[in-house]
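Bench notes, afternoon.
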Amino acid sequence: MTRTTMTTTSLPADDGAITHGSEARRAFKIAWPVLIALIPMALVLGAQAAQKGLSTIEVTLMTALNYAGGSEFAAVGLWTSPLPVALIVGMTFLVNSRHLLMGAALAPYIHHLPKRIVYPVLFFMVDESWALGLADARRRAAAGIEPSFSLTFYATLGALFWFTWFVFATVGALIGPTVGDLGRWGFELVFPAIFLVLVRGMWTTARAARPWLVSLLTAAIIHLTIPGAWYVPAGAVAGLAAAWFWADAQ
């Protein structure tokens, strides 16, 4: 990686240059509060899955290979006998449809990478790694650092989140049958808490946040009026349309 002088406090400044080691350390420093928040979420998912009849190895494989927390919670919530496969597949698609927009936002920063690197990058793209990785790429671009997308930084984030997620989901599956409903401890609040932290990290101005507000209001209205996960694509489309409208107006 090219050694480049640092100009912002959000980037490594221990020796004034970017190295693979400094990028990995910087990623861990930024990621550890989110990692702590992911642990109870993973425990709850694993416990709920075990209580629905999934074995420990099935929980491990689901969380390590599927690696999409929102859709995993939706699938476990729908897990009954006989298994509604079509419904689970459809719900998973709806919940994960936001990744289409997330990938589009990340594309300008990774388009120059070869496909053998891009595909693993996209596999590790979850809400947390995407938000932190994209915000970091924008800061680096503003500081004039090339390349703006730090592959080492992003790969470290992705590996940390992925490992934490499936390991503690497995632990949750192991202890789930003995501890009962972990939800009574209020761990579900971790979801909105992490979201607010990520939004704060990407915040620029209130004017730029207007599409977020449109997306939020649309998703809330659909969630209250239409059963299912239709609020996910509805909020995403509304936010995209609002962003296009205001960008065109400017």
